[in-house]
């Protein structure tokens, strides 16, 4: 009876968070950049550059405090492929709890897709291969861009684990595997396991949805996030997965997922477990980026103790912001930081 009562209370708490957001959320604290050693002129130059890009919001935090912000920080926007880095954090928790094994193959997990179905060779791809975008499975996928469809390698052209390609099939199948192995909905899980513990102010489980397309049985899972909530997620990773003394995501996973395992087609950027890595010669060791189409970005720069977030609402800026422009902005902000 006591167990039932406990589970009932947990369910009630989850329902309240899912539909109303986090009642215990704490607003960000701000600090004066000049008194913190920032170059005020350098920060102004970065802001002037950001204005030309027309983002919806930019937020700069150092040591967990807001240094500068521009735009509507509470506006929730579809952050596109940032969803993948959010899922990576949930994988870190599930792996640490023994609910998912990185060594499991798709054959082990019973993962397939609509005709033309996966081959026996493709089913030898592991969960880790998918996290690294190295599955070698080039089946049509949901939520692909035109470039993805046009540039997709031929089926069977690369064995699992041998070749990096930014592949929505991998990312969507990881969503299916997460739901299958944990028995949890992605958005409810994120709300309970990450958003609530770190005090996100705006996110609720209703801010995610599944997008299925006829060519694949694995749906995409886009999230809507505000800039100030996205910055909390960045701060969580900057702090090695800890929040207010509590380990939310294993520190080992934070390090592993933001380590470059592959060179990419984006110049000096590498790829970890659903995270992009940034040039260490420019940003120092451990710098990483969660990046989404149209200019959605959460960047962490450990050498400067920085989190920088940009969101772009297509209703306000249909052309979006190129990733290279955001990286230029990030470089200007980092140069202004003490």
Q: What's the structural blueprint in terms of helices and strands?
A:
Blueprint lengths: L1 H19 L19 H14 L3 E6 L2 E7 L5 E2 L3 H15 L9 H4 L17 H5 L14 H6 L16 H15 L3 H10 L15 E3 L2 E5 L3 E2 L1 H12 L3 E2 L2 E2 L3 H7 L4 E2 L6 E2 L4 E2 L2 H4 L4 E5 L3 E6 L4 E6 L11 H14 L2
Antiparallel strand pairs: 1-2, 1-14, 3-6, 4-5, 7-8, 9-10, 10-11, 11-12, 12-13, 13-14
Give a structural overview.
- This protein is of the alpha+beta class.
- It has a single domain (37-336), classed as Beta-lactamase (3-Layer(aba) Sandwich).
- Helices cover 37% and strands 15% of the residues.
- It has twelve helices and 14 strands.
- Strands 2-1-14-13-12-11-10-9 form an eight-stranded antiparallel β-sheet, sandwiched between helices. Strands 3-6 form a two-stranded antiparallel sheet.
- Strand 10 (270-271) and strand 11 (276-277) form a beta hairpin.
- Mean pLDDT is 94; it is low at 1-20.
List keywords for this structure.
338 residues, alpha+beta, Beta-lactamase, 8-stranded antiparallel β-sheet, 12 helices, 15% strand
What is the compact description of this entry?
The chain has one domain: Beta-lactamase (3-Layer(aba) Sandwich), CATH 3.40.710. The protein contains 12 helices and 14 strands. The protein has helices spanning 2-20, 40-53, 82-96, 106-109, 127-131, 146-151, 168-182, 186-195, 227-238, 251-257, 280-283, 323-336, and strands spanning 57-62, 65-71, 77-78, 211-213, 216-220, 224-225, 242-243, 246-247, 262-263, 270-271, 276-277, 288-292, 296-301, 306-311.
Number of strands: 14
Please state the second-level CATH architecture: 3-Layer(aba) Sandwich
Give the distance, in angstroms, between the N- and C-terminal Cα atoms: 57 Å
Element string (H = helix, E = strand): HHEEEHHHHHHEEEHEEHEEEHEEEH
Q: Approximately what portion of the residues adopt beta-strand conformation?
A: 15-25%
Number of helices: 12
SS content category: alpha+beta
